[in-house]
Amino acid sequence: MDTGPALVSILRQGWYLIASIHTALDDSQLLRFQRDLIHEIGVRRSRGVIIDVAALDVLDSFGSRTLRNIAEMARLRGAETIIVGIQPDVAFAMVELGMDTGSVSTALDLEEGLEHLSRRWRHATRP
Amino acid sequence: MMTEKSKAPDMKDAFPPHPGTEHEQLLPQLVAHLREHRSRLRQEWAGRILDSHLLQAMTPQEMAAETTSVYDNYVEVLETGSVEALQHYARDLSERIIPRGVETHEVVGIVLLLRDVLARSLFEKYQGDFPLLDRVLDAYEPAANRIANTVAVSFVDERERVIRQQQDSIRELSTPVLPVRERLLILPIIGVLDTERARQLTEQLLGGIRTHRAKVVVIDITGAPDVDEAVANHLVRTVDASRLMGASVIITGLSPKIAQTLVTIGVDLSKMNTIGDLQGGLEEAERLLGFTVSRRSDTLE
User: Fold this and answer.
1) With an 8 Å Cβ cutoff, is B182 touching chain A?
2) pTM for this one?
3) B148: distance to nearest CA of chain A, Å?
4) Torsion A120-A121-A122-A127 (CA) sign
5) Could you tell me the CATH superfamily of domain B178-289?
6) I need a surface site. Which of B35, B45, B128, B210 has the fewest CB within 10 A?
7) What number is the ipTM of this complex?
């Protein structure tokens, strides 16, 4: 398993975690990211996770499946996931290849993602 | 005609099957004959054009001017053996007459008529001396055919250039992405959607979503006469890709024909948000974005 410096930064912002992927990840790096993130959700008691893929100009089937898995695992740990910053070319390539993000929400960019989560969360906690 | 000597090598290049000094002397003779009877032959030619109902898009004055120019150019080519000037003229002529709906067969037709008129006048002139007529025709025919060829090719080239130019401008105009409200885009599709246009549409739409930070896109296909299976699937994929970028798509203006086509060919549209017309689509988009539009009671009427 990859043990070098992390290629994904996982930052805490209030109730949310923001994970920015800076560069294309190989399979083992993706799995490490998955493990780190799921672990972090529990530690931080996060309600939401934003995964920012704006820096990626390609996303293969393993990558999109891993993102889907992360979202499902996060849901089981009590956090909602939203993927932001999918580039136009990446979006179309993903659809062409029949890979989608399933039931995971998507948003244009980080700002939108935060707004989406805060709206959702307000609703959820309102008595 | 003495100047012909200096142009002889040029001519040899132009008509390689007939080398020899006699050939060089025959063509000047021929040119002199055509110059001498210029107005009569041109008249005869114009008459034949009229009889064949060619170039009816042109007025008699224009016809007279153009036939004179063509005639002079024709004789010049026979004289010099170089088609360059003719090429220029033919291109220029094509540029003027193509917008008026002149067809290829008309242009080729008039040049062939001129060839026949001139050939006939040669028959008349040399009918007493058959071997000489034979040699004159040997000199005349390849040159005449080459002229016909040049004119036809210039015309077709020009027409293709016009078509290419039009294609380019249609392509540029074809897929505008219009912001109508904050975070709301409209994409009207007018005309036939082929694979190339559909691809371009996707590119423009996804790029537009990013630049305008759009949340809702209304694609209006009222102006599209029909779609085929490939294009329909492409449209569905575009909608999915837009969703991945965080924008929802509303499709409006599906004609009865397209609706039937889509259901018959079995494109999965269950995830598509469709609304009858553009007005309804805009209203729905405004609702999604939280706009409320109301009319003030003191305006109009």
Assistant:
1) no
2) 0.61
3) 51
4) positive
5) STAS domain (3.30.750.24)
6) B128
7) 0.77
